[in-house]
Design goal:
The chain has helices spanning 71-79, 136-145, 163-173, 182-185, and strands at 6-8, 13-17, 26-31, 35-41, 47-52, 58-62, 68-69, 83-85, 89-94, 97-102, 106-107, 121-122, 127-129, 156-157, 160-161, 190-191, 203-207, 215-219, 224-229, 231-237, 241-244, 249-259. It is mainly β. A hairpin with a 2-residue loop joins strand 14 (156-157) and strand 15 (160-161). Helix 2 packs across helix 3 (163-173).
């Protein structure tokens, strides 16, 4: 592996862990097309510590799931307006083999002729330009596609996702680059004075214990918030926090509201 410093995900989903061990906590995931820098290998040369380009998240991946690319390709990806998928799951052909990729994957399809991908790839699903910003209605429709997805710590796909990843992926698909962690999201954008100023598409942050935000959701229409809590769900939102309609119990208490769309 000497001299290999860059990689790209060529699997549907790759877990990224805190330590070079399959039993270690999952901190995030790579979806198809996510590219990264290799920082170092584990002493046994079985794991790679990586830094994801888009959000600078760091963690360990199984080296057998690493797909090496050149620095030239890495830099070209950074400059090329590729497509991001908008279907929950899409079958593709990669090197003439079938593969199913999930919503939010990056596919090497663009109008740019600066670099020709030397991999055989066939895609016929729904996608949009990665950097093309869409309106609030698109953001809300994207969020609703995740409804029913199970909560999974460190997950970022429709088949398992955590609260900040849900927000990050909704906005990434919509053309906005948000941080991966709750702490960074809670400082992103512009803080509103009260929930009375909030519009659909704004972010609401919540606490359960203490004064530090521990949860986040997307403000939708009809006084609802879409968030990952057990599963991605739409619950009632008011100035107190999140009220579960079935139980009439507040599960989270409102901390702050922020606007990320301009």
């Amino acid at each position: 592996m000497a001299g290999v410093y860059y990689g790209i995900s060529r699997l549907s989903i790759i877990p990224v862990r805190t330590d070079p061990d399959h039993a270690a906590e999952q901190v995030t995931q790579l979806l198809f097309g996510d590219h990264y820098e290799v920082l170092r290998l584990s002493p046994d040369k079985l794991w790679a510590l990586i830094r994801v380009y888009t959000d600078q998240a760091e963690g360990w991946i199984d080296l057998r799931q690493h797909h090496a690319i050149s620095e030239e390709y890495f830099q070209q990806i950074n400059k090329t307006e590729y497509k991001i998928t908008t279907d929950i799951a899409t079958p593709v052909l990669y090197k003439k083999a079938p593969l199913t990729i999930v919503m939010g994957s990056i596919v090497p399809v663009s109008s740019s002729e600066l670099f020709k991908v030397e991999e055989q790839f066939a895609f016929n699903g729904e996608a949009k330009s990665l950097g093309q910003r869409r309106d609030v209605e698109f953001v809300l429709q994207t969020a609703k596609k995740y409804l029913g997805s199970p909560f999974q710590w460190g997950g970022k796909s429709p088949f398992g996702i955590d609260a900040p990843a849900l927000i990050q992926m909704i906005f990434r698909i919509s053309g906005y680059a948000l941080p991966r962690t709750l702490k960074l999201q809670a400082a992103y954008g512009r803080k509103l004075d009260s929930i009375a100023e909030a519009h659909p598409g704004d972010l609401a942050f919540f606490t359960t214990k203490g004064a530090t935000p521990s949860h986040v959701g997307l403000i939708a229409d009809d006084s609802k918030v879409i968030h990952a809590f057990g599963q991605v769900r739409a619950d009632s939102l008011n100035e107190e926090g999140i009220l579960v309609p079935e139980t009439k119990i507040y599960t989270h208490f409102l901390h702050s509201v922020r606007r990320v769309m301009t």
